[in-house]
Amino acid sequence: MSQLTVRSPKFHIDETVPFQWQPANPSFGLFGNVFTFLAIAFERYIVSATRQAEPYFTNPVVAEEADLFVRQEAQHARAHRAHAKAMIAGYPGLEGTYAAANAAYDELLEREDVEFHLAYVACLEATFTPLFKMVLDHRRQLFEGSDERVGTMLLWHFVEEIEHRSSALVIHHDVTPDRSYRVRKAPKVLEHVSRIYKLVLAGFEEHVPIEDRLISTQLVSPSGLYLSELRNRIGLRGGFGNYPSMLGHVPGRDLGTMLWRETKGQMPRHDPAHEPLPAWAERWHEAFNSGADVTTYEGVGALT
Ligand SMILES: [Fe+2]
Ligand SMILES: [Fe+2]
């Protein structure tokens, strides 16, 4: 029996949310905004792809897991839509960026077959637990000083990504017993997602003035993120003025562990059930289960 719970907290995101919702760490603020655009497009794709795969499921337990998995993802997309809507209201040019990100996934859905879609979803979902463990383990420095309307929505999403970390692989393995198929497709998947990530960043660069972003979008491009951390660690500040690099406070050892786990996540025998988890995720669940307000930092104990 699946253990997933579908939740739909009502986050208070409206058009008064500033584009740069994390002025204390603007790189993380921009990353969160890209994540919103990407999440909506990717989660629509997950829902369509998984529904397409339904006739091929061989196991009723997998069918139940898939149903709860897509319902969680649909809730994530719903919450992120309010955030995207707020950004587009402030910067109408972003409507085109939003449409282009969605169109890229619609085109992928059209072009590839259902096995590829399930491999795509499983590859990307496998990257989330190591990434969000690192984020949640170091959450205070990432979220302190930010607008909690956006911050608590992201924390909820990250916690649920960790909760359903096995779903996409279970679904994939049920339809495609060849475990090396997903591994073979991983480079193509990562190339696609990185292209859409850059497309969204280019939209922010074009349509949102730097006074509102606070930093250049270059600093959160895939290579920019890497170079910023490297510069920060060898003591060069160039490029991001008075602002910290996004993960400047995260010990190198923790970043190394994350990268190692990201690599392991793409191996054929990867089983997310055994991955180390952030202790704080349990605290979020306790807060939710006790009826605490998960739309405030205080309610979920985000900054302690
Ligand atoms: Fe999600
Ligand atoms: Fe997910």
Could you describe the 3D structure shown?
The protein has 304 residues and is mostly helical. The chain has one domain. Helices cover 67% and strands 0% of the residues. Helix 1 crosses helix 8 and helix 4 packs across helix 8. The mean pLDDT is 95. The structure holds fe (ii) ion (2 copies). One fe (ii) ion binds at residues 39, 43, 73, 76, 157, 161.
Throw out a few tags for this protein.
mainly alpha; 13 helices; binds fe (ii) ion; 304 residues
Helix content: 55-70%
Q: Spell the H/E element sequence.
A: HHHHHHHHHHHHH
Q: Biggest sheet: strands, sense, closure? A: none
| Quantity of strands, as a count | 0
Rg (CA only): 19 Å
In short:
This protein has 304 residues and is mostly helical. Helix content is 67%, strand content 0%.
Walk me through the topology.
Layout: H1 26-53, H2 60-90, H3 94-111, H4 114-137, H5 139-143, H6 148-163, H7 167-175, H8 179-207, H9 210-213, H10 222-233, H11 252-265, H12 279-289, H13 297-300
Helix pairs in contact: 1-2, 1-3, 1-4, 1-8, 2-6, 2-7, 3-8, 4-6, 4-7, 4-8, 4-11
Bound molecules: fe (ii) ion (2 copies).
One fe (ii) ion (FE2) is lined by residues 39, 43, 73, 76, 157, 161.
